[in-house]
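Hi everyone,

Forwarding the result from last night's run.
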Amino acid sequence: MRSLQDLEFSGAFLMRGFWLYVWTVKPGARDPMIYVGRTGDSSSANAQSPFNRLSQHLGHNRGANALRRHLAKEGVEPEGCESFEMVAYGPIFPDTDDHDEHRSRRDKVAALEKALADARREAGYRVLNDVKCRHALDEALWQEIRNAFVARFPKLQHKRAHAAP
């Protein structure tokens, strides 16, 4: 079926660095589904932009399309979904060419990603992915990030302020 589609974002969405993001997928008659992710994962030496991850998540490259794979496990075809929304926060840290610094930033953001996924689940959101991480959580940075996401996801306000690593 032909239809007019739109996509709007600011130029900041193109900035490379370490970001956290939340997808909200509305698969028609079913309840919305959430996916929590980050840029700067362990599969690359560079931290990409949320825009880059947006297209990869729904593409057909099995090495990069985690959201598509999670939806398939739920019996959901992305092309049949009512809507997709991605909310990104960052860059929390800029991208770096230094391998050790990249790893340090990646690990900090991984702990924040886990905290965000856990907090969303505890707040009653249906989170598709289970984020695993044992790195220490930077509590001050977590509060900043949690507060930023509360603006778009108010149920996060009323749940515990801290998610254990």
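Residues 16-158 form one domain.

Cheers,
N.
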